[in-house]
Amino acid sequence: MVDAATDVFEARMAQWRAYRATPWSRLRFLIVAHTLSTSIARLGGGAWRILDAGGGDGGDALPLALAGHEVTVLDPSAAMLAKLADDAARVGAADRVRCVEGGIDAIARLGGEPFDLVLCHFVLQYLDTLEAPLAKLLQAVRPGGYVSLIAPNRPGEVLAKAARGGDPAAAFDLLHADANRSLTFDRTVRRIDAETAIVALEAAGCEITARFGGRIVNDILPESAPKSDPAFFADLLRLELALCDREPYLRTGMFWQLLARKA
Ligand SMILES: C[S@@+](CC[C@H](N)C(=O)[O-])C[C@H]1O[C@@H](n2cnc3c(N)ncnc32)[C@H](O)[C@@H]1O
Hints:
The protein is of the alpha/beta class. Helices cover about 40% and strands about 25% of the residues. The strands form 2 sheets. The protein has a 7-stranded mixed β-sheet with strand order 3-2-1-4-5-9-8, with helices on both faces. It has a two-stranded antiparallel ribbon with strand order 6-7. Strand 2, helix 5 (about 80-90) and strand 3 form a beta-alpha-beta unit. The protein binds S-adenosylmethionine (SAM). S-adenosylmethionine binds near residues 4, 53, 75, 80 and 126. S-adenosylmethionine binds near residues 9, 53, 121 and 126.
């Protein structure tokens, strides 16, 4: 079963939109806009055909559309897609954003040419397995095309619980836990480490071409209030962008991102 229950994502839309307005959510999307735009430029640039599976309200899709790419966003939540359609129209990108209601299982029904790049960001942890959705995602990638996966990073969660959360006992418990709690969606999520995803991608015939990490510093800063100050935010963003592809920092953030090339 690849499709997760979607009612929870609909019901928690208000919480999701509140999260999207926070400085730490803005950081997450700005970091990924940076990793994707620099990767696409390094791989030859141009206008790419991109599928965002579980793309939600388009936090990753809209910057890509504004940069000239053709983006299809597939998501089972009609409310998320409605918000994306509104935003795309508002910023003049509606002609480069296609919204399709459905989960990863619906990829086979999309039709058309396979994509240059398929994104699946912060979705896999809600699903029962990694291998089955990954196989479906890869079906949508053209030979020589790319897949980008993002999920919460196990070491980052432990560090954040101890540092920002100020709770070393809870951090210790999290060290070996296989599940965690999504506060925004009030749901139990599987903990998938980057190494597990690398093994699955390589077993599926992909070559890992880049690994990034995000919210490396943000999630261990104990105070949240300064992040709303524009000058502090700019300094924090500059530091995050400098660290996102740099060892060993990239292994310690709130999330990992893998870019892999399909054979
Ligand atoms: C945490 S949100 C992430 C949204 C977006 N990718 C982002 O990073 O902002 C999880 C999204 O996964 C979607 N989702 C849930 N089950 C799914 C499935 N089986 N296939 C694709 N998307 C799914 C939800 O509707 C929701 O929009």
